[in-house]
UniProtKB/TrEMBL annotation:
It comes from Microbulbifer salipaludis. Its main location: membrane. Belongs to the cation transport ATPase (P-type) (TC 3.A.3) family. Type IB subfamily. The gene is cadA. Keywords: ATP-binding, Cell membrane, Ion transport, Magnesium, Membrane, Metal-binding, Nucleotide-binding, Phosphoprotein, Translocase, Transmembrane, Transmembrane helix, Transport. The chain crosses the membrane at residues 118-137, 207-227, 239-260, 272-294, 300-318, 453-474, 480-507, 787-803, 809-827. It is a multi-pass membrane protein. Residues 119-185 form the HMA domain. NCBIfam families: ATPase-IB1_Cu (TIGR01511), ATPase-IB2_Cd (TIGR01512), ATPase-IB_hvy (TIGR01525), ATPase_P-type (TIGR01494). The keyword Ubl conjugation does not apply. SUPFAM superfamilies: Calcium ATPase, transduction domain A, Calcium ATPase, transmembrane domain M, HAD-like, HMA, heavy metal-associated domain. This is Cadmium-translocating P-type ATPase. InterPro entries: ATPase-cat-bd (IPR021993), ATPase_P-typ_cyto_dom_N (IPR023299), ATPase_P-typ_P_site (IPR018303), ATPase_P-typ_TM_dom_sf (IPR023298), ATPase_P-typ_transduc_dom_A_sf (IPR008250), ATPase_P-type_domA (IPR059000), HAD-like_sf (IPR036412), HAD_sf (IPR023214).
Length: 836
């Protein structure tokens, strides 16, 4: 535990401080202080009363840490802390427990010698009530030794903590949060789902209160409006006003509370958000109506306030549901997994166990209709499996012995026995979820621009509202306030702020269904600008399933089986797609000192003899000068040829064959029709490169390109003002993937390649690329339509409101309908279909 968490004595001990007589509420949580209580903490030079030892301890920890500004910034009382023994947090130091919410840090960190040693903990923090809570949590944790970075999202209550496990334990993070009165918990799928349910329930409660209040106030408003012409008794008129006040107060003070809170936070931080004019409109209308009721003068508009609040909440509720459906809330993918599975022991007996108890190497039984809880390999049976959640392909994929299966997919018509190869956070589904979370952290430039426009627009609206009030005060003082109110309401830039994120959310979801997982926020806005796509060959343009087709011996006395087994031993630990060709012979021989040289080959020792496998120059560099001087031309037969050699010279040529993906020609043709140039860059030096380029329709190609040469080619294209998309799957593609404007990695790619990619191709159908280009263009069109509509609506509505032709309740309906139109237009992208 860091020094910042060491217990410190407050400026004045609680036992020596007496609660001031004038204070009856706890300064920390706001609950009443019992008579005779002597719990207190000195804050800002004053002994503040506390209701219990828990609040006293939390407040003392905040003050001792130099964070007492928290009490100046907060907008409402904190929650009362729960008592929890210190041993409660020690369980989170166990690796088995951490596997669900702690992962390796994959980014860069300035000032850190070894960023690869860092970990990231994802926590849900209960008790956050405002931006001051976020400030307090980040300050408290950042001050801890070993914590490098803390990011807290006030809306999702999620904290991302980058820490050094050698300097601080995970239990210390939990303890630090608990010491200042918050409730930490791992950001697991179950906890995320619970938080989503809480958000939905809270929204429905507020919407229900606003709806009921609106209906009731409208009844009294009708009596006031229509009763006046019939000479309603003034006593009853005042009675109806007071009843309307009573009914409208919960609507304003409870249902509309999120608007006031967001507006207050924004103003305190020096920003203008859409909730500022909304809060002004609700607050001013309610305040003026209360004044008119109390002093029996003027008109009351409780029905307008209630109706305005109801329509606002209805619009935001629909937007929230759309956001949840679009999959922006984290934890949704993991909810697809079952809670239990049927584990099979060595005797064939089956027992039901929790999915969390499954381990790599165990076997499970999948019945027809079962959701697969782990990644694995079929060892018995044959069946069709629905992998649409991963690939977007609705057709069943036929699985037989040796076929891989993945968590989240659904078994079809027959039973399967599966050997587990990955469980929990190691599954492909978990990797996809992490990429989705990573994409959510990025703020696209289009969305940021819309936010900036909205902020300036709000300032202009406030100025126009003041001008409307001044103008109408001179013309008709009785209408001045309500005209200004209508201006504030009708021009609220909700639609403007929703225009971009709603479209990006829907398009991202649709891209995932089409087979392309977006891992960076800029992909959709950059794709329409791409002018060239560069393909890698092995595992990208080809199937990535090479097979050993022939062996040509170059040394007498060596058998084909010997050359094959030595090559397999050298490739046993390599993650390159070519290594898969030797998989059937892994284990026949063993090799030590294995080393892979990117783009050249592999080396290692078998039975004490040093061997190399790869391109001829790399292999011959190991041999004697005489052997290296002898030219060795690759066989003329079709295929990719690797040389095997030792210090005495070449041993054999091994010919590999890899079929081109059936979708490659269509993909190149579709990209060409969209005006996007294509190019093939491969490290392979064989005749396979020009052959595949010709078959696929790619005119520009280069064979034998090293990673450095690929990157140089990319930089040269970018200097010519080209925007380049690179797609690859090998470690040798990492430099060019990192440098491309948009990078795409195959789902079968090396982990390092995937971590550097902006998007992941979930299945082998390359046609997802041109479809992504088309969808990105459609998304840009939808965004422009949304922005155009939002601007047109305000241009048309503002003059009408300024002229007094739109009452406040109609302004609320118009503004809500404008937002709903924007969301509905954006959701069209979730149903977009590629042209045939």
């Amino acid at each position: 535990m860091s020094d910042s968490l060491a217990p410190r004595v407050p400026a004045q001990p609680a036992s020596a401080a007496a609660a001031p007589d004038c204070a009856s509420d706890c300064y920390h949580c706001g609950l009443p202080v019992a008579e005779g209580s002597h719990y207190a903490v000195r804050i800002d030079g004053i002994d503040r009363p506390m209701c219990c030892p828990g609040c006293e301890a939390v407040a003392g920890a905040i003050v001792a840490g130099g964070l007492d500004n928290f009490y100046r910034f907060r907008e409402q009382s904190s929650e009362r802390p729960e008592a929890a023994p210190a041993q409660r947090w020690q369980a989170y130091d166990l690796p088995q427990v951490q596997s669900e919410f702690v992962r390796d840090f994959s980014g860069t960190m300035s000032g850190v010698d070894d960023p690869q040693s860092l970990r990231v903990a994802s926590l849900l923090v209960g008790g956050i009530t405002c931006a001051a809570c976020v400030w307090l949590i980040e300050k408290q944790l950042t001050a801890m030794t070993g914590v490098e970075r803390v990011s807290v999202n006030a809306s999702t209550h999620r904290a991302q903590i980058v820490f050094d496990p050698s300097r601080v334990e995970v239990s210390a993070l939990f303890s630090a949060l608990a010491s200042i009165g918050y409730r930490p918990s791992p950001a697991t799928a179950a906890n995320n789902e619970r938080m989503l349910q809480q958000e939905r329930r809270a929204a429905m409660r507020r919407l229900g209160v606003a709806g009921l209040g609106t209906m009731q106030v409208m009844m009294f408003a009708i009596a006031l409006y229509f009763g006046g012409s019939k000479g309603i008794d003034l006593q009853f008129e005042q009675f109806f006003r007071w009843v309307s006040l009573i009914v409208a107060t919960p609507v304003v003070c409870y249902a509309a509370l999120p608007f006031f809170g967001a507006a207050w936070r924004a103003l305190r931080s020096g920003h203008l958000v859409m909730d500022v004019p909304v809060s002004l409109a609700i607050g001013l209308a309610y305040g003026a109506s209360v004044y008119a009721t109390v002093f029996d003068t003027g008109e009351v508009y409780f029905e307008s306030v209630s109706m305005f609040t109801f329509f606002l909440l209805l619009g935001r509720f629909v937007e929230m549901r759309a956001r949840h459906r679009a999959g922006l809330a984290s934890g949704g993918l993991a909810q697809l997994l079952p809670l239990a599975a049927l584990r099979q022991n060595a005797d064939g007996e089956v027992e039901s166990v929790p999915v969390a108890a499954l381990a790599v190497g165990e076997r499970i039984l999948l019945r027809p209709g079962d959701t697969i809880p782990v990644d694995g390999e079929v060892v018995e049976g044959a069946s069709g499996v629905d992998e649409s959640i991963l690939t977007g392909e609705s057709a069943l994929q036929q699985k037989r012995v040796g076929s891989p299966v993945f968590a989240g997919s659904v078994n079809g018509d027959s039973s399967l026995t599966v050997r587990i190869t990955a469980a929990g956070s190691g599954t492909r589904l978990s990797a996809i979820e992490k990429l989705v979370e990573q994409a959510q952290l990025d703020k696209p430039a289009q969305a940021a621009l819309a936010d900036r426009i909205a902020g300036r627009f709000i300032a202009a609206v406030l100025i126009i509202a003041v001008a409307a009030f001044v103008f109408w005060w001179q013309q008709d003082p009785g209408r001045a306030f309500w005209v200004a109110l209508s201006v504030l309401v009708v021009t609220c830039p909700c639609a403007l702020s929703l225009a971009t994120p709603a479209a990006l959310a829907a398009a991202t979801l649709r891209l995932q269904q089409l087979g392309l997982l977006v891992a960076r926020g800029h992909v959709l806005e950059t794709l329409p600008q791409v002018t060239r796509v560069i393909f890698d060959k092995t595992g990208t343009l080809t199937e990535g399933a090479p097979q050993l087709r022939s062996i040509i011996l170059l040394r007498e006395g060596v058998r084909e089986e010997t050359a094959r087994d030595i090559a397999a031993a050298l490739e046993a630990q390599n993650n390159h797609p070519l290594a898969r060709a030797f998989r059937p012979w892994f284990g026949n021989r063993s090799a030590t000192g294995l080393k892979a040289v990117t783009g050249r080959g592999v080396s290692g020792a078998c039975a004490g003899i040093e061997y190399r496998l790869g391109v001829p120059e790399f292999v011959l560099a190991l041999a004697s000068a005489d052997a290296a001087a002898t030219p060795y031309a690759a066989p003329s037969e079709q295929g990719q040829w690797l040389m095997l050699g030792d210090q005495q010279g070449p041993v054999a040529w091994l010919g590999l064959g890899d079929e081109m993906r059936p979708s490659a020609p269509d993909t190149v043709s579709m990209l060409g029709a969209q005006g996007v140039a294509t190019e093939l860059l491969s490290g392979d030096q064989s005749a396979e490169v020009p052959r595949l380029a010709t078959l696929s329709g790619i005119e520009e190609y280069r064979a034998g390109a090293t990673p450095e040469e690929k990157l140089a080619r990319l930089k040269a294209l970018q200097k010519r003002d080209e925007r380049v998309l690179m797609i690859g799957d090998g470690i040798n593609d990492v430099p060019v993937l990192s440098g491309a404007d948009v990078s795409v990695a195959m789902m079968s790619a090396a982990d390092l390649a995937q971590s550097r990619a902006d998007a992941i191709l979930l299945k082998g159908d390359l046609r997802a690329l041109p479809r992504a280009f088309a969808l990105a263009g459609k998304c840009r069109t939808i965004i422009r339509q949304n922005l155009g509509w939002a601007i047109l609506y305000n241009v048309l509505a503002l003059p009408l409101a300024f002229m007094g032709l739109i009452p406040p309740w109609a302004a609320a309906i118009g503004m809500s309908l404008s937002s709903l139109i924007v969301v509905a237009n954006a959701l069209r992208l979730s149903r977009w279909q590629p042209a045939r």
